[in-house]
Amino acid sequence: MAFFRRIQKKVNDLWYPQSVTWGKAVTTREVADELSVLSTVTRGDTYAVMENLGRVLSNFMGQGRTVKIDGIGTFYYTATSAKRGVPTAEEVSASLINGVRVRFLPEVERNSGRQVTTRSMVNTKIVWEEWGKLSVSSGDSSTGGNPGEGGNDEDQNENPLG
């Protein structure tokens, strides 16, 4: 089950649902455990591969390559600059770059009309529940507290490289 909360945007004073995450982040070990259950690979072997995945992706992307992992998606770097731009092409140089972001595009499947039919990282049977409210099926609609840990889908401004 996924959770959302109601938020009002200051830009237009309209209300929107915003996704909410809860609890501590799932660890590499937990993911390795799940992968080992689904495959014939041991947890230790799975963990060892996952532990080195970031380094391998960084190496390839640092060479200017895009990395596509079947069933997951595509990773690539984008550069950010401190200035809005310069008047002429001759003034453009690497010195204008002040940051790097990792971008990710989930793998998609398209039908013959080129419309997206499925995304590998999106559960098609997701059930949304308002954060802090008990399930309607329990007969109780009382509210709970706010999430203690977690985030939302607006963490786009964080620098994934530190």
Could you name the ranges where pLDDT drops below 50 across 5 or more consecutive residues? 136-162
Tell me the fraction of residues in β-strands, as a range.
25-35%
Order of helices and strands: EEHHEEEEEE
Quaternary organisation of the protein chains = single chain
Question: What does the largest sheet look like?
Answer: 3 strands, mixed
Helix content: 10-25%
| Number of DSSP-assigned strands | 8
How many helices in DSSP terms? 2
Strand order of the largest sheet: 2-1-8
Shape: extended
What structural class is derived from the secondary structure elements?
alpha+beta
Rg from C-alpha positions? 21 Å
State the distance separating the first and last CA atoms: 30 Å
Overall pLDDT level: 81
Short recap of the structure:
This protein has helices at residues 28-38, 43-62, and strands at 2-8, 15-20, 67-69, 73-81, 97-106, 108-110, 116-119, 128-130. It has 162 residues and is of the alpha+beta class.
Question: Mind explaining what this structure looks like?
Answer:
The structure is a single chain. The protein has helices spanning 28-38, 43-62, and strands at 2-8, 15-20, 67-69, 73-81, 97-106, 108-110, 116-119, 128-130. A 3-stranded mixed β-sheet has the order 2-1-8, with no helix packed on it. A 3-stranded antiparallel β-sheet has the order 3-4-5, covered by helices on one side. It has a two-stranded antiparallel ribbon with strand order 6-7. The two termini are 30 Å apart. Helix 1 (28-38) crosses helix 2 (43-62). By secondary structure, the chain is of the alpha+beta class. The protein is built from 2 helices and 8 strands. Helices cover 19% and strands 28% of the residues. It is extended and about 55 Å long.
